[in-house]
Write a structure and sequence with these properties.
The protein has 219 residues and is mostly helical. Helix content is 59%, strand content 0%. The radius of gyration is 18 Å and the shape is globular.
Length: 219
């Protein structure tokens, strides 16, 4: 499949998305990193509530890093896997502090995308999705993040093998999607996955699914 043809079909249906909202002002990417760790395997509403609770409970990143881990887990308890995520958050902050002497990921701006992604993924608990979201949203780098919607559509549209792991989907899609449309296609696939090509009871009465989708309803 030609990725640009799929992109054009999604734009025709959903409209052109806005450009990536680069968030350098929020601790040079650190807030994005912590928020994305919180978002792993939970709904957006839970992520928002946990993020608000986290930054209300602690005055700065040093306080979060040095907090009692069990206490931190209770602060973010609205999300699943609270204990693991508390540990991941503190490991991430420790890694940033040891690298920079402070709490900024600004140094990633000077790295190429692959190097920056490798640095992030070297933090235990930071996988391809988290790294790609931070690089795309936090730094505007050409990085294609794969959430549950994007993974589902990538498989249904035949872009990757149905049995591919999430990590494999990240690797394949980052190779296949042109740099200039990585963020926009990510947004479009999420919109389509939420609005039409849902996990259950998909609404296949649309030109994109009619042309590309191989789910049971479409096939």
């Amino acid at each position: 499949m030609e990725i640009r043809e799929l992109y054009a079909a999604l734009v025709d249906l959903h409209g052109e998305p806005d450009g990536a909202p680069v968030e350098h002002g929020n601790g040079e990417g650190v807030r994005q990193l912590l928020t994305t760790i919180l978002s792993q395997n939970v709904a957006d509403t839970q992520t928002a509530r946990a993020t608000e609770a986290l930054f209300e409970a602690y005055t700065d990143y040093a306080a979060i890093e040095n907090a009692d881990t069990d206490e931190l887990a209770e602060v973010i308890s609205v999300v699943g896997l609270k204990n693991q995520k508390a540990e991941r958050i503190q490991r991430a902050l420790t890694a940033v502090r040891e690298e920079t002497g402070g709490y900024s990921l600004g140094f990633l701006d000077g790295m190429d995308t692959d190097e920056a992604q490798t640095w992030l993924e070297d933090i235990k608990g930071v996988g391809p999705k988290t790294a790609n979201v931070v690089l795309s949203f936090g730094f505007g780098k050409p990085s294609f993040a794969v959430d549950t919607h994007v993974e589902r559509l990538s498989k249904r549209f035949g872009l990757v093998d149905e049995t591919a792991t999430n990590e494999r989907v990240h690797r394949v899609m980052n190779r296949r999607v042109p740099d200039g449309i990585k963020y926009e296609l990510h947004v479009l696939m999420i919109n389509h996955g939420r609005g039409f090509c849902t996990a259950r009871n998909p609404d296949c009465d649309n030109p994109v699914c009619a042309r590309y989708c191989s789910c049971e309803v479409c096939s």
